Automatic annotation (TrEMBL):
<dbReference type="InterPro" id="IPR029069">
    <property type="entry name" value="HotDog_dom_sf"/>
</dbReference>
<dbReference type="InterPro" id="IPR050563">
    <property type="entry name" value="4-hydroxybenzoyl-CoA_TE"/>
</dbReference>
<comment type="similarity">
    <text>Belongs to the 4-hydroxybenzoyl-CoA thioesterase family.</text>
</comment>
<protein>
    <submittedName>
        <fullName>Acyl-CoA thioesterase</fullName>
    </submittedName>
</protein>
<dbReference type="Pfam" id="PF13279">
    <property type="entry name" value="4HBT_2"/>
</dbReference>
<keyword id="KW-0378">Hydrolase</keyword>
Length: 148
């Protein structure tokens, strides 16, 4: 569920969502298993891209796949069962790749739980070729100017 879609630098290029880890996300130590954090990033990324009407079904319809080619996560504190979390996703690069930064924090204390980023590249689905400049459809959907 989106909470805030405004950011001073780029009012439309970020979103915050709320979520709480489910019991099946825990490991034997009763904390969120590290492999579940990418799922939380994916939920935020889909919410972010949906606000531009360019989530995965629209990407596919436009003729481009957007595989993640790099993902980095830094674990700061463990998240726990039913802890109220805020996941912020912000598009920070969009010229030659789509880079999204993430911050997961405790909704009550504001303490950082995790920070991450993902990098996606456009791949022409008809040829399988990676695009070295993001396609015009991304620029159009984000509402940013295409490079000259």
């Amino acid at each position: 569920m989106p909470i805030n879609q405004n950011h001073p630098a780029h009012p439309r290029l970020s979103i915050e969502i709320a979520l709480s880890p489910a019991f099946h996300d825990l490991d034997p130590m009763d904390i969120v298993w590290h492999g579940n954090y990418p799922k939380y990033l994916e939920i935020a990324r889909c919410a972010l891209l949906s606000q531009f009407n360019y989530d995965y079904p629209q990407m596919k319809a436009s003729g481009y796949a957007w595989p993640i080619v790099d993902m980095r996560l830094k674990y700061v504190k463990p998240a726990r069962f039913e802890q109220k979390l805020i996941v912020r996703a912000e598009i920070v690069e969009w010229e030659s790749r789509l880079k999204i930064n993430y911050l997961i924090k405790d909704a009550v204390s504001g303490q950082k739980i995790n920070q991450a980023h993902t990098i996606q590249v456009a791949v022409d689905m008809s040829t399988g070729e990676m695009q070295y400049v993001c396609p015009a459809i991304l620029w159009e959907r984000l509402g940013v100017e295409e490079p000259q």
